[in-house]
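Researcher: Sequence recovery benchmark, item below. Answer with residues only.
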């Protein structure tokens, strides 16, 4: 059997195991780029807990799937950063500092996460945080504006400030004095820097997803935004 057909069959088995069956699953399997691993949906395979060693147990305990057996593949946002365990641990510390110990409330934080995911086309965490953002009080209209990269008309000052901050930081790679001043006005000096921290931690994971061309199973992929 040709290699690409074997990979497609393996990937379909993975979809079946995950409960993703029917025409949508078959279409997704057929549309996968040829250089992607059928299990991870990326250019590299998932590592297992056995690959991690003692230094990586913190990561594997958080993101291991199934019954936690030693041979389980470790998926999740740091799956590919974990090819360098010290880097993955540092990113986990960055996440904890920015998200758990930062000054932003849940509404601003979740919106900042979505902006960072959108600017890096990070489908995995975008899908994971849409519900969290809604639960934190972010309106669906605001989420749609972020997803479609639409103008910020009709938004609250705070929501517009977060979105504009992220678009300039990650998209333009240059921030205007007005945008920074507005972030400080809305969130304070510490809050403005926490916007950088929150967006950075999710953007870095997004960069890994870009490099390995990660296609989460069954997900509608975010397309690049136009600036």
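Model:
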């Amino acid at each position: 059997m040709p290699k690409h057909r074997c990979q497609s069959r393996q990937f379909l088995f993975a979809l079946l195991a995950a409960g993703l069956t029917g025409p949508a699953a078959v279409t997704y399997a057929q549309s996968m780029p040829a250089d992607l691993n059928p299990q991870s949906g990326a250019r590299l395979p998932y590592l297992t807990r056995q690959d991690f060693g003692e230094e990586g147990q913190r990561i594997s305990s958080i993101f291991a799937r199934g019954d936690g057996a030693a041979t389980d593949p470790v998926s999740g946002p740091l799956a590919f950063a974990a090819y360098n365990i010290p880097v993955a641990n540092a990113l986990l510390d960055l996440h904890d500092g920015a998200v758990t110990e930062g000054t932003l409330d849940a509404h601003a934080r979740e919106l900042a996460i979505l902006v960072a995911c959108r600017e890096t086309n990070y489908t995995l965490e975008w899908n994971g945080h849409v519900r969290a953002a809604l639960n934190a009080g972010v309106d669906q209209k605001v989420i749609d504006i972020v997803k479609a990269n639409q103008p910020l008309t009709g938004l609250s000052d705070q929501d517009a400030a977060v979105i504009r901050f992220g678009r300039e930081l990650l998209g333009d790679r240059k921030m205007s004095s007005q945008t920074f001043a507005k972030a400080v006005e809305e969130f304070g000096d510490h809050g403005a820097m926490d916007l950088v921290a929150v967006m950075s931690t999710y953007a870095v994971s997004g960069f890994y997803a870009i490099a390995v061309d990660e296609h989460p199973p069954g997900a509608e992929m975010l397309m690049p935004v136009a600036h």
